[in-house]
## 1
Amino acid sequence: MNHWIIAPVILPALLAPIIGFVMRYDIRLARIASLAGGVALLAIALGLVVQAAGGETQVYQLGDWPAPFGIVLVLDRLSALMVLLTTVLGLIVLAHATATGWDDRGRHFHALFQFQLMGISGAFLTGDVFNLFVFFEILLIASYGLMIHGGGRDRMRAGLQYVVINLAGSTLFLFALGVLYASTGTLNIADLAQRLQEIPLEEAALVRVAMMLLLVVFAVKAALFPVQFWLPGAYSNAPAPVAALFAIMTKVGAYSIIRIHTTVFGPGIEATEGLAFDWLFPAALITVVIGAAGVLGARRLVPLIAFAVLGSMGTLMLAVSVFAPAAMTAGLYYLVHSTFAAAALFLVADLVMAQRGHDALSARAAIAQNGLMAALFFGAAIAMAGMPPLSGFLGKLLVMDALRAPDVIGWAWAAILVGSLVTIVGFARAGSVLFWKSTAISPGPEDGPTPQEARICTPAQLAPALITLGLLGTLAIFAGPLAGYLESTTGQLFDRAGYVAAVLGANGGV
Amino acid sequence: MEMIVASAVGVLTAGGVYLVLRLRAFPVILGLAMLSYAVNVFLFAAGKLTTNLPPILSKYGEATYTDPLPQALVLTAIVISFGMTAVLVMVALASFLESDSDRINLGRSENAGLPVEPGQEEAQ
């Protein structure tokens, strides 16, 4: 067995308590340990991607118990890619939080951050639905702490709402697992996939109920239409670096839908054929519309970005909802892109807010580094809105190209194109108010208590945002090789028989 | 017994949903606790209801046993929901102390931190 598969879970799990207990009074020590952990995690994730690139589905049996009885972790191209995405984003956010001093505005930022990375990596690697629930809870309980990091009235209230909606979601998750276990007698993903193939349509009522419940649970995490209300409040009140990290949290929900509703309930399963599409597609359409409307209507910068994230989740789920290989490839490309685009926007917004002192979209005297911030915001905004030359344009192009079936093309293209236009208008309005109109106003004495010189960003503070924008450019330049990798990823994802054989066939002694 | 267990799950769930919809911190916490009780009983029942049976195969030839897996699942779920409820109570308390309000919905506070613009003081 390949023990590196569990390393992305073990390393943060060991590091977090050490940071929390030993280094709790020394922020410098905690920063060094946390950053070192982040770099090590990135190296491990790179190693896993190289291992998974061969196309073999690798299985790690915890305690060496064979698959349907013990818990397994499964490494294939998709999970390796998601873990790599998590660690890259985690390291960038960590660098930003350290450079801007966000981590020192409350206790235990680094410990919670490591637990968060542990939960996310585990959720991407697990091959067992109940274990997925457990990792969800780990990442959620860490995110509760990160969400209210730094405190403050609005943040605590938004945090309470965030905790409540996720606890309700967890309860629903358990109900879904109970129904699934009662109707199939297993919770192992590969075993489920195998047994569901044998369930005839007339006996599938309970399975369909379980599938819909799971869809709702994952939709809560992915912030899809009927259950998206928590996202703008939570993201716009969370500390900005945490909001940037949360860009991957919505993707955990998207990943779960991609994994479970393709491998277990996906195409070719008679019991649940087409059911996910019927609900997911309209929900994703409405999410795109809500996101675009919110971007246009927002009166503050951070809620504006939160609604842009909502719109990007809608676009992503449009691609996922048809459960076809070509669309899934496009969706995965857009997933990688939108994660970094959302993170870049939040990081830039944090730098802007640090100089302006607030995030209202109103014309005030120009900030110290007006031109630089305008350029950064412009770059991140065109990436999110989907304009060339950054990867957002290619991502949306791929998604639209994949959604050309006659029954989806009208709605999907209309939603994506109109949504993009409205998003561009919203971002253009925000950018011109923040950076352009402000140059016409001469600074008055009331514009901030601290002198302008003190608020100039250091290169260390700018670097994470610049690197994220650079990654978006790299995604566009290397779109060809990446799309090739993602195509083989999708091929592996839709190869249900291969997955089942790899997990259930890998009995002891391998 | 099926009737008792099913109605217990139903009543607990109905009560939990009602309390969660009250949108005040304390009823919501109680409601989520009731929901987690409901789901624990529900998970237990997912392994079929039996009485007085061991959770392992007997070596004396009795072929009947109760499914041990839901019991393990319930145990995990209890631990997690217990910890989550503790976190929720602390967050709710902090939120109440910070804002003097125990409402869950954010209402108009989206604009609460907005600096008032000149000539717009009374617009809201």
Note: The longest strand of chain A covers residues 58-61.
## 2
Amino acid sequence: MFHLMIKDFRIQRKKSFLVFFLFIYILNFSNTESSVLIFSAITALIAFVMAVNSNFNGREGNRAQQSLLLSLPVTRKEVIAAKYFMNGVWFLAAFIPGAGLLLIKDFSSFQTGRPMFYLNALILSLCLTYFLMSVYYPVYYRLGYKVAQTAAELFGAISIGLFFSGLTNFTFLNTYLSAVSEQTVLLPAAAITLVAVFISYELSVQFFSSKDF
Amino acid sequence: MENILELNHVNKKFKGFALEDVSFSLKKGFIMGFIGPNGAGKSTTIRCIMDLVHIDSGDIRLFGESFHNNMKALKQRIGFVYDQDVFFDDLTGEKNKRVVAPFYEQWDDDVFYRYIKEFAVPLNKKMKTLSKGTKMKFALAMALSHHAELIIMDEPTSGLDPVFRKELLDVLLDVIQDESKAIFFSTHITTDLEKVADYITFIIDGKVVASEETDELLEAYSLVKGPKSAEPQVKTARPIALKETSLGFEAFMEGSEARLLASKPNLRLERPSLEEIMYYMVKSGKKN
């Protein structure tokens, strides 16, 4: 399974890394508690784009590449498991530079002592990342890469558009998050994500295992 | 001798096409050619063997084991070449090798680079910039670089120039010197098979109509040629197919039936080529 994960890293398109420019947005953060949501959403979006793009490399499309993969000494279940594990890697690849950038910003403005922000952001962005993937992969394995790619690109474009259109779009969420404790949100978010990932993984295995290539 | 590949009564139904009761076997140390017209089921059969397509019923055995038991371990022992571009188009040959090689416990870089040099494949170019023939050479080098015992190839000679086709056949003959190995390949270019294949499996409309030694298959049929005046004589011998030519006629017959006509002075018996056997079998729609 490790080789399958390395494969995803190796076939990642260079242009996918452009999505990391979304972190520029973080530099404009006001240091309010509600920015946890923005930071988490950006991190999840970056991880999502990276994960989705690691499924497409070349003109031949997905069927040919699945033929290659399944002709190698791997099981179908391992292919799926590698995808779900690799989400975690893409998440870390997005979270670490983002959090690092924020830390630098905090230190340069002599603002320290908000470790809970990073912990909350870590949990929330991980949940968001896996939740997006939980929706994406069953679609990808059931309806094929064209439908999944189109839907993912649409979602990515709309999300990026929303970020750059200004924070005001998130006012209702900011207001809600200010009103409740972040920890109150995190626990249900984690629980929902766990259930979603479990169902999503089982569906993906079922779809992929029954498919002919 | 041990069968390295065995298909027993394999069935697979698709919309508008089905593999029906496909059975044949290949022993270690031999090359089997898999022939049939377009759409006959050659690629589908190969995909069934590789477990890319789930069979409805029947059994496929690789190295004496049912492939359901441990396909992952069995695939370590298989080298494959497909008729489509399966490698990553946006990566160079070298990067594709780096992706695929770690999956094989017995990957041998020395063998890989030797074949790459022999086939003159540029490893620093992206796959999408390579010609079909060069991609096929790359795929072949990949298939041969992990000491696979069974090489499965789907139309490996299509898109190749005659010079490399000859080289490829030499490589296959070289590989098969190791008697623990076997090669199974489908092709349209039957002249290639006559040179190297020990066995031929012939499939039409999803059904295997012949699976036997190449020489036996070639002996099993005859072409009978003669003037138009001799045509009624030949028709009574129930030819499989009969075609009128500018000089007379050409009849495709069972070898045993044809030999009964050998004494007729105005008839000439010829051994058909694989291509002719394939042509007449398809034309006549003959099924076993």
Note: Helices of chain A lie at 2-10, 35-53, 62-71, 76-108, 115-143, 145-164, 171-179, 182-209.
